[in-house]
Design goal:
homotetramer
């Protein structure tokens, strides 16, 4: 399996899943009060959309950063990647459920928020599994220095723990859990991962090979 | 992040979003009067579909024209691009809402048209942000002459202002606002942007590199 | 615009549109009689699905055969291609409408079949427009001999006329119009187009360039 | 037709179909009892989702393993591939139907499970047809040794027979048939196909050509 098709398929799934999030944006239609009030009432849909879009968008960025460091693929990676995608594809469902129940009587809201945060946790775990796979047997183009591995491992562990905290938070306040998930996104947008620093993901001019593929 | 995968993911999102527009095309089904009358009654769906399809199609063309001038990518670009896609993905929703309320009693129609035009404005602003990002620090393959930058900036500002006018127009007449959005599309189809002139986007024979990638 | 991204975007739209056809496959669910009877009653959905899937699949094959002969792209081609895609994306809607009304009282069935056949006609016309565009100004990698152009033109004209006949047939019998559309597909599966003969689309071993892109 | 675009289109269809599976994940919403009970009641949706996601994921892996051994494509392959995709696209429908009826009174559950297993059988047959196509006329980059062909043929026959058994099993117990389909997936995850052994699909470092396409 060449990496190109693995990335193409993953990109396709990411792109469809992120776009299906918008199917959760709805209004009730004529006969359900003024449109402006309907739009106002549906704020949980918009909030959940923005957080989930950011989450999938960031996991896509990180997925790419990680895969470009791989020297090879094998069946294990293919199936770990399918596991990650199986979780990503669930996001439109958990997002829709959270949006529906965010302002519901408390117990249902707690369950919906815990379900949502669990999807984040499952995604973090699947992503960590891919990262761990990559550390063995010359699977990376350039070996990552042990210090970098240690820091990246800490960060993955940290991310995983934050989702565990969000699950706990769900049983206190569903909106707080949604905010918690959103803060994870904000953190990833503004912080550089050691991994990306290690592999020089950023601010890199188009390489000659890149230009060969995409003529100017 | 190589540009290829950024484009592939963006193309995926554009392709899914543009296709989901068609989910708004519906008939009520048996028991709701003759089909021919149902089709006639639903003209706002078709009008909104054509305008939104054109808008996303044109932004896709412009997105490509712009990205092919970039010499490199960085995390800032990735997230600005996600911001643009977050707006693009919202189009099926605002299109559906506009189609539902276009012929509704006036206040709801105004709100729906203002919502629709606001999505156009948000898209124009996100696109401008990507354009501005590209002007700094040798991010372009070939620097754009200042005169071209000035003209392109004017055009982006112009496009943004037209959407502001469409929002204002929404509160006069929803169909007029839809026509306004459609006229923006017509303008972009028939006019060359200075940017595309500058980067020689058009009428260019397949380069040798292109042929190497796509065998004849 | 390099051809690669035009094809990638088009492929994305074709892939999403062809997959959305399956959203029309449904059963009514518990409480609407035995499942086996529901499946039997819904035969128009399956028939319409198979015909529309074949139609989009074939236009995708032909789209590719045509584009690979092009030496360059320009804005006109981009917008003609968007026009073609705008019609392709409408297929899930017209397919669903035809399936719903195929066995309805005659007038509605006639309208639904005429709508369906009109989408086929629009697709044929948009495709012809792209073909005609390609014949001017050295737009092809290798010029097509006049004899081939004449034969291809005849075939396009023929395909267009068949859809006109299907529209007429719709007002006699909706199922007959669906069969007519299906026969067009069967014809294209088993017959070689002069165009594809001309450009040597078939039975061609992977060229060295192809191997370079997809390592064995 | 170069293989690259055939793969890209197929990947697109696989990606959309696998993601649409998640549209079957739903809750009934407020007014239908506590959310936690709704989630519990809907376990057939989750079970069917996991099995179908795995099935499409695996067929995607196998599709890629197979296509990379092909030296050329022709119209026959294109249409056999469309046939395979036509079956893949049906999975969200049969999955949704099975999930709806899995716990229904027995006759409907049997029909839903037989429908589901038939889709698996149709997919296996379409895949075998593509495999058989590849064995003739120098269609492979490297000829597969007869012993490998024999073993691969046995395995394909075996997979086909297992689906026939699942269809029979459907009339005994729908959940057992779902488990049967899931076991086929588990088998394919953990076992190497002779085909993949023959073509060296696994554990292969990125070739120089691969690196040329995806700059490190």
């Amino acid at each position: 399996m060449d990496k190109g098709r693995l990335e193409a398929f993953s990109d396709g799934v990411f792109a469809v899943a992120i776009t299906l999030l918008a199917l959760n944006l709805t209004v009730d239609g004529p006969g359900h009060g003024p449109l402006i009030h309907q739009l106002g009432r549906h704020w949980p849909q918009y909030a959940a959309y923005v957080v989930s879009f950011s989450t999938i968008g960031i996991i896509w960025v990180n997925h790419h950063s990680l895969l470009r460091t791989f020297a090879k693929t094998d069946r294990t990676l293919l199936f770990l990647n399918l596991l990650l995608l199986m979780v990503v594809v669930v996001f439109p469902f958990v997002t829709s459920t959270l949006a529906t129940y965010l302002t519901a009587p408390s117990r249902d809201a707690h369950v919906a928020a815990a379900l949502y945060s669990s999807a984040g946790l499952a995604m973090a775990l699947a992503f960590s599994a891919i990262f761990r796979w990559s550390l063995k047997d010359d699977r990376l183009i350039e070996p990552v220095p042990p210090e970098m591995v240690r820091r990246a491992t800490w960060r993955f562990t940290g991310g995983t723990l934050v989702y565990v905290v969000c699950i706990a938070l769900s049983f206190v306040s569903a909106p707080a859990a949604l905010v918690g998930n959103g803060l994870v996104d904000v953190y990833y947008v503004f912080e550089q991962t050691p991994l990306s620093l290690a592999s020089g993901t950023t601010d890199e001019p188009g390489s000659p090979e890149d230009k060969r593929r995409r003529p100017p």
